[in-house]
Structure formats: structure tokens, C-alpha cells
Amino acid sequence: MGNWLDQNRAIVVGALALVSAALGGFFFFTNRAEPPPLEIAAPETTPTPTAIVTQAPPPTSTPEATNTPPPLRVYISGEVIAPDVYILPPGSIIKDLILAAGGAAKQADLDTVNLAEELKDQQHIHIPAKEEARPTPPVSSGGKTSQPTAETDTRSVSLQIEPQAGKKININTAKIAELELLPGIGPSFAKRIVEYREANGNFSAIE
How far apart are CA 53 and CA 55, in angstroms? Predict the structure, then answer.
């Protein structure tokens, strides 16, 4: 036995060295620290913006345009407190115009004015005085009062009155503006003369 060990010492030592190397390598690899696991960060997610839907307000109805009549511009003269041009609402009457002018004066002859007459735009209203002359019916030879009568024939009676200016005016053909030139005759009185002439014919005489 001793001879065999002596003869094979080198082999035994080599085998032991291989076994030791194998065991050392085994323990070396088994005791190595495992590397930490690789952490993969998840990508950050950006929140998707949500669309905000706003409801449009309901359309507003446009009011229909109304045809409002314009105001009246009327001139008043004569026997009122403040003669002037006044602006009144549509549908106003002469009485409204007199009140707008401060009322009638003491000498105003309102009996000759139609206070309920509806006004028109750019109209001229004259309030006469009580002393303004009125047409007087002619007096017949018998002493009785008679109304002016129209001519029975085709000839026109020329009744001429000479105003202060010296120009003669025929009351059977004169217009309202011409009659106003006569003393004591205002627009209202002149209008009444023309209306009477149109309804009853020409005047036959003037007293």
C-alpha cells in the first residue's frame, strides 16, 4: 500500500486538486449576489383633454318694427296765452293744442272754434277774439233779416270789399288767404265764409 501511494502520489495530488477546484468553483458561483432586478418605469400617461360642449343660447326673437305715426307739429295763433309751434301726439284735437299753449285768453271766442277737430301735421290754428267781425245777414227792405241767397241766373254778383291795403277783394271768389286780409277776419272766420259760399252759393249783398 505504501508503495502504491508513493508510486501514485502525483496522481492522487492531482485528483485532490481537481476536486478542490471543482468544489471551490461550485461554492463561488452559488454564493455570488444576484444582481438587483431591472426596474422598467412605465411611461407617464398624459391625460387626454375632454372636449367641453357648450349649448348655444336660444336665438332671441327680434320684436317686429311697428309703424308709429310721427308727432304733429302745429302752429297756434290768436287769443291764447302763448302762441307758438307745438309738438303733439297723433290724434290730438284743437282743445289739446289750446291747453298746450297755456289756455285760451279772456277775449278768445271759442264758440267759433271746433274744439273737437282732430289736428294735422303742419296745421295753423287761429283762435279769434270776440270783437272780430262776424258775417251779418243782410236786412231786407221790409225790416226783416234775410239770409244770403245764391244768384238765380248765370251772372255772378261781384261783391267787392276794399281792405286797408287798398286792393279790392271779391268775397264770392276770394280764397281763405285773401279773406284773411280783410280787417277783423281771421283764418277760422275766412274758412266759415268759404264753407258757407260752397254750400249755399254766392252772396248777393253785404250790409
Answer: 6
17-21 LR contacts (CB < 8 Å, sep 24+) = none
* pLDDT at residue 150 is higher than 70: no
Contact 128, 185 (CB under 8 A): no
Burial of 47 (C-beta count, 10 Å sphere; 0-12/13-18/19+): exposed
* Cβ 156 vs Cβ 202: under 8 Å: yes
Mean pLDDT of 12-40: 69
Cell 279772456 appears where? 106
Q: Where are the domains of the chain?
A: 72-127, 133-207
Question: DSSP letter at 31?
Answer: S
Q: For residue 80, with 0-12 CB atoms within 10 Å meaning exposed, 13-18 middle and 19 or more buried, which class applies?
A: buried
Q: Of the candidates 186, 68, 108, which has an alpha carbon nearest to the alpha carbon of residue 95?
A: 108
Could you tell me the three cell numbers for 48? 387626454
Strand ranges across the sheet with 124-127: 84-88, 72-78, 124-127
How many CB atoms are located within 10 Å of the residue 69 CB?
9
Report whether pLDDT(72) > 90: yes
Of 126, 125, 130, 93, nearest to 108 (Cα)?
130
